[in-house]
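Exercise 7. Predict the joint structure of the components listed below.
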Amino acid sequence: VGVDRYDGSTPLPTSVDEVEFFVLPLVLGPGPAAILDQLPRLRVVQALSAGVEDIVPLVPPNVALCNASSVHSTSTAEMAVALVLAAQRDLVAVSRRDFVPDARLIWPSLADRRVLILGYGAIGRAVEARLAGFECEVRRVARRARPDEHVDDLAALPRLLAEVEIVIVCLPLTSATRGLVNAAFLATLPDGALVVNVARGPVIDTAALVAEVQNGRLRAALDVTDPEPLPTGHPLRTSSAVLVTPHVAGRTNALAPRLRDFVHDQVLRYVHGEPLHDVVTDGY
Amino acid sequence: VGVDRYDGSTPLPTSVDEVEFFVLPLVLGPGPAAILDQLPRLRVVQALSAGVEDIVPLVPPNVALCNASSVHSTSTAEMAVALVLAAQRDLVAVSRRDFVPDARLIWPSLADRRVLILGYGAIGRAVEARLAGFECEVRRVARRARPDEHVDDLAALPRLLAEVEIVIVCLPLTSATRGLVNAAFLATLPDGALVVNVARGPVIDTAALVAEVQNGRLRAALDVTDPEPLPTGHPLRTSSAVLVTPHVAGRTNALAPRLRDFVHDQVLRYVHGEPLHDVVTDGY
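Solution:
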């Protein structure tokens, strides 16, 4: 297997006519993504991110697109549980130097809560694995029902939303999921429910969420937002019922070693004609 | 079974001569604890806390003392993992409105870390159950080695401390554990290690920990401290490498239903002559 590097700032390698497997950079710059339609023998575009909504339109017909959601699941699912626990215990407020706990105050545990994992790919499954020891009850919803894994489809949402106290959004951003978490969705959740998003900001209708946190009915913990970054003074930033982190879920030292192993494994699979992992669109 | 209530503010019930099983209040006031030596038929003192260092000296000879560590394990272990995740991701700083993430910054995941659970009773085991899905490696140390559970005794600490990156203190406070986490203990930990305490403040030598966080070598996340509460301006409060919550680990809505079921079960066990749970000193 021959390997060439191209970062967009140098002349194109002479091998462009032979490239079959193209690994995009983790942070998609303008250079490498722009030459996807200049590679006549291209068979596979391998993204290093989990979300590929910006890459899908760039992939030529009959070329497979793979993401790296099984790699990001470790770090992203960890952040999802971190956000759940920090929100339940109100860790940011409680750890302030001037916080004096009223002796009668109690906080909601994660234990005994009913949790909906919305989106049950690699990241949703990794979230569930991390929740296993916490004495909570998990419900699963994905775009396609999978009865063997007890995964319902979106049609089950009205029933499930009424009974869960925590929703963790792990769906990819597509035309079908944009704005899925809208006013009607949120209105179905019980008072005090927590909405966590580690997917993409636009899966949630920001105005609808703002209305529900500002009236004190719901809480939120968001690693991703719409818009992103949030401007100064945005109501999601100023509400005490919302914990926001600036899209850092994947940025841990768990990522690099897993990405290296994953790309190595994917290239070997391609060379040996074996099925690839994390296939988003199977063009070849 | 006859039940009388006494809160210290009313005259003693006429049943004091018959009381065999005495349930202390969750927050130990001066009243009920003071009459423990006035109950001639007393066989069992049931504390509702996990830590009983203040109760042990009040229990008459030949009377059993039980704590409720198996009840508190749910909420306390949950807080231990919350503190670990919040510290690893620096959630308090990262969620500040004025935080701008440098594109090159990455944070340490819990995944891939070697974690020492120090104290392997109900709470230590509950911490391990919650860590199970996080792709980390767990080591176990308790006051007594239990080879069948892969639990080492304190003699293994020098070897284990050198190789772990996170220590979670779950030991009871006794004369043997007071100050166990001292300067030598901390010096053995690798640079950047995280010390979490959900047990009792004095298990850690505060001055030794302050020295290690002020020189930037170690990090800490503490629900309990010595002294407690921390005075304004205490170095554990002002260090950016330390996350402090004000002894709130147990204060969730997971506690009340579990305590009710536990006390009910303990009284039935006593009445039926069955072994009690969570026995600290078996006096009868």
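Discussion. Chain B has a mean pLDDT of 94.
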